[in-house]
Design goal:
Shape: globular
Strand content: 5-15%
Bound molecules: glycine
Structural class: alpha+beta
Oligomer: single chain
């Protein structure tokens, strides 16, 4: 947690941006695994962490934009709770740690929201992404889930995303600590990588590393010889010489800031010529993209598209694409090789702020506003700001089902060399990823001089050693 002054200043700035009404910021509740007292690992909501700092479950934050006053609703533990959890600070004590002087039990929340409704006060809230939060807000506001989404505060979505996407110096320091956790995770995986090891042994070891250095993993680790499956969470594979292992994993600092890195390397410790050729194409995009991550750049055109052109040039060089790289990108042919974005926001969350807008099911309602504001609430219209942290994760994947579908539909005819592509069907996939801070003059890769091995030579020197 940062000092109380950080949270006080963030709430004041949010009030200034919203101007009127009351802002509801629900924290997360426990999510039961099989019965209420056996819950999944608890992760606090990112926006609640940003404005209220507390990482325990079942708190609800309120900010009154007229008075500037903040309130936390939450329950003090009872003796019954203490038997199971041990003694805990009171809600008032916890609130004071984040500069909040007013706190009430959760039982007072419904009455408080009722009084807002009766007085006609404007109530702002973000679109919820968890069922429990949807139920709570629906019950407090007297809305159906559809009405809840319809009436979400677009002002609040843009204000919160606009603030969260630009990181302060103390946030960047926390992200550097998250990088060091990611570094330890990835170098551990590299050293363990050899034929006969089961993917889950590596997944388990690096998750242990993440917990031993900080707050645990920042998302479910991907440790797979099937790198062509973008989010492959199966760990059953036994490592085989000749295959590539893709590890996409990151850690969370104790302040809840995240890292996200991917490395791909040969199980044998030595790239084949074909693996090296494709690897170096992805590496070229990975190394050149940070220069495009300048304040003012438009993400899709200036960053994502330029990376696709570098990849297309490389694929042309190995004979998988005919004609010009620009034409291949313009025709959409790179979707066949990299069917995902080059970047997403990073911060308190991996895919920072995407819960606010990008994945909202009535997304079209925010598109017009997103184009004007150009915050990370909508990646297609995202204009980069100095201090934004984003992933840089080019990849090339050979996905047999996608190749077959494109070929059967006659897509990219004359551009993609399908006959040659057939010989890559069992290649797998390569992704290389680090986290980058946007500055006025280009991106700076988090980690400074320390970098997770990434070139062919660096990887061959460490994998399996
Ligand atoms: N590295 C995980 C993701 O980008 O979703």
């Amino acid at each position: 947690m940062f000092s109380a002054a950080t949270y006080v200043a963030r709430r004041a700035e949010l009030c200034r941006r919203i101007g009127n009404g009351v802002i509801l910021i629900p924290g997360n509740w426990e999510a039961p695994y099989n019965y209420p007292n056996n819950a999944y690992h608890f992760r606090q909501d990112g926006t609640f962490i940003y404005y209220f700092g507390l990482t325990l479950p079942q708190f609800f934050g309120v900010i009154d934009c007229q008075s500037g006053e903040a309130t936390i609703f939450g329950d003090d533990v009872t003796v019954d709770d203490i038997i199971w959890m041990g003694p805990q600070p009171t809600v008032a004590q916890l609130s004071a740690q984040v500069g909040v002087t007013k706190s009430y039990p959760l039982s007072a929340l419904a009455g408080y929201v009722d009084s807002l409704k009766k007085s006609g006060t404007q109530i702002h809230y973000l679109p919820p992404y968890r069922g429990q939060t949807t139920l709570l807000l629906c019950s407090l506001l007297g809305k159906t889930p559809e009405e809840l989404h319809r009436d979400k505060s677009i002002e609040l979505m843009f204000a919160v995303a606009g603030m969260r996407e630009v990181k302060s110096a103390e946030e960047i320091e926390a992200m550097e600590r998250a990088f060091h956790i990611g570094y330890a995770m990835h170098t551990t995986a590299m050293k363990m990588c050899r034929a006969g090891v089961v993917e889950r042994e590596i997944a388990g070891a690096i998750e242990g590393v993440a917990l031993s250095y900080g707050g645990g993993i920042s998302f479910t680790s991907i440790v797979s010889q099937h790198g062509e499956t973008l989010h492959n969470h199966n760990y059953d594979g036994v490592l085989e010489n000749g295959k590539l292992l893709l590890v996409d994993a990151g850690g969370e600092s104790t302040e809840n800031y995240c890292s996200d890195h991917t490395r791909t390397y040969p199980v044998s410790g030595k790239f084949t010529e074909r693996q090296r050729d494709i690897y170096n194409i992805v590496l070229a995009a990975h190394q050149q993209s940070p220069a495009n991550m300048k304040a003012g750049a438009m993400y899709m055109e200036d960053v994502h598209r330029k990376a696709l052109v570098i990849l297309a040039e490389g694929l042309k060089g190995v004979g998988l694409i005919n004609g010009s790289a620009e034409d291949a990108v313009a025709a959409g042919a790179m979707y066949l090789f990299m069917p995902h974005g080059l970047s997403h926001g990073m911060g308190i969350d991996v895919h920072d702020c995407e819960a606010i807008g990008e994945r909202s099911y009535d997304f079209s309602a925010i598109v017009e506003r997103a184009a004007q504001e150009a915050t990370c609430v909508h990646r297609a219209t995202w204009r980069l700001r100095a201090g934004t942290v984003m992933s840089n994760e080019p990849g090339i994947y050979f996905i047999p089902a996608l190749i077959d579908k494109s070929r059967a539909e006659g897509l990219y005819r004359g551009i993609v060399n399908y006959d040659k592509l057939d010989s890559y069907r069992d290649f797998g996939g390569i992704r290389i990823e680090d986290d980058v801070i946007v500055t006025e003059s280009g991106g700076v890769v988090i980690g400074g001089d320390k970098k997770i091995p990434v070139t062919v030579e660096e990887l061959e020197a460490v994998v399996g050693k």
